[in-house]
Amino acid sequence: MPVAFVSQETFSVPSSFDELGLILALGVLSAALPQYLFSKGAQLADMEQTTMISSCEVVFALGLAWVFLGDAVSLNDMIAATLILLAGLIRYEGMPTPRDGDNARDEFSKKDSAVFIPKRSENHSS
Predict the structure, then answer these.
(1) pLDDT, the chain, mean
(2) Nearest residue to 85 via CA among 60, 67, 66, 65
(3) Could you read off the pLDDT of 74-111 as tens digits, one per residue?
(4) What is the distance in angstroms between the CA of the first residue and the CA of the last residue of the chain?
(5) Contact 89, 59 (CB under 8 A)
(6) Per the UniProt record, which residue ranges are transmembrane (predicted)?
(7) Is the dihedral of CA 19, 20, 23, 25 positive or negative?
């Protein structure tokens, strides 16, 4: 249950078009536009980069709240942010890189991207 319903005695709706406009602008600027931009960016980047960036949202929010709002950062917050960043670095550094002439990664990506059906040989001995 939202805190607003519990903490206030009455429920109020916007009484003017100015208030309604501010509420709509808040919804568009804080929810719809960032989600749209993230979706468009995710189409341009590969899946691993997108996942790593989205997992760092918590760290960015913590840092921006500290810088712009003067929010206190506790030891638990710092530990959590460090663990998130370390997990991203471990995942990023742990990815194998293909060597020259190594087609194993290409074969894996072909199998992983679609249903793998082995080719049948055309030689039919009768």
Answers:
(1) 76
(2) 60
(3) 999 999 999 998 888 887 665 556 666 555 555 555 54
(4) 74
(5) no
(6) 20-38, 50-69, 75-92
(7) negative
25: its two tokens = 């602008």
pTM of the model as a whole: 0.50
pLDDT in tens, 33-71: 988 998 898 888 888 778 888 888 889 999 999 999 999
Picking from 43, 44, 50, the residue whose alpha carbon sits closest to that of residue 91 is: 50
Query: 14 and 20 in contact (C-beta within 8 Å)?
Result: yes
Q: Which of 77, 37, 40, 75 is nearest to 60 (CA)?
A: 77
Distance CA 18, CA 61 (A): 29
Type of residue found at 48: E
Amino acid found at 90: I
Half-sphere exposure of 124 (CA within 13 A, CB side): 3
Placement of tokens 């568009």 in the chain: 28
